[in-house]
Design a protein that fits this description.
This protein has 220 residues and is mainly alpha-helical. It is built from eleven helices and two strands. Helices cover 66% and strands 2% of the residues.
Length: 220
């Protein structure tokens, strides 16, 4: 059930002091953030770690969150985006801050375990579409700035202004990044040696409207 803006604001304010309220926010947003991170990484185990880190950082910093310029959900997407980008930059395996904080300071956190059903459903979605896996394989070859906007816009179905809010950029910049990014992605896909997959993927470069259609699966 969707919360109206005022109810969500009240819940976020409660979450600044109440662990149970933060647990409600976790339940409300976990699947969306997990789905986004899984689409960026293509790996369930990595997504679990990064999403756990995302919510840990959100919980640790929620007292600093203010309702100015960015919504709570956009704030979570922004944290998750930063976590994914850092993951691709580092060479060492992810070491969860949750565990380090608990051992060092006895810092107690809510149960952030991934709902098993959500993992299975999302993993099945990724593995069921060979086309998507090919797109994702090429997508990670692009710069972070293109990965971010393409995934948020076309796989998360975010509107231009929502992507702008999440990434802290202007709508005009987002449109420009999308146009360049999709052209670069299409060039990579056109050079793929598996033409039987290429013909199953339609890239419709549409950055102006709020009806994202990239990629659409089906034969031309």
């Amino acid at each position: 059930m969707e919360l109206d803006l005022e109810s969500e604001r009240q819940l976020v304010e409660r979450a600044k002091t109440e662990k149970e309220a933060f647990g409600q926010l976790f339940d409300r947003y976990y699947s969306k953030i997990f789905g986004y991170v899984l689409k960026r990484t293509g790996d369930v185990a990595v997504a679990e770690d990064l999403v756990s880190e995302t919510f840990f950082k959100a919980m640790k910093n929620i007292k600093k969150f203010q309702w100015r310029g960015v919504s709570f959900s956009a704030w979570l997407y922004r944290i998750a985006t930063n976590e994914v980008n850092m993951f691709y930059r580092r060479s060492k395996p992810l070491e969860l801050s949750i565990e380090a904080e608990h051992e060092a300071h006895g810092f107690d956190v809510p149960d952030l375990n991934t709902p098993e059903r959500d993992i299975v459903e999302l993993q099945d979605t990724v593995e069921r579409h060979a086309q998507y896996k090919m797109v994702q394989g090429h997508l990670i070859k692009l710069s972070e700035k293109y990965q971010e906007v393409i995934t948020l816009r076309y796989f998360e179905n975010k509107k231009i202004h929502e992507v702008a809010e999440i990434l802290g950029k202007s709508p005009g910049t987002i449109k420009s990044l999308l146009s360049r990014g999709v052209h670069k992605l299409k060039a990579l896909m056109d050079s793929d040696p598996q033409p039987f997959l290429q013909q199953d993927i339609i890239l419709d470069i549409d950055t102006e409207t709020d009806h994202p259609r990239v990629p659409t699966y089906g034969r031309k």
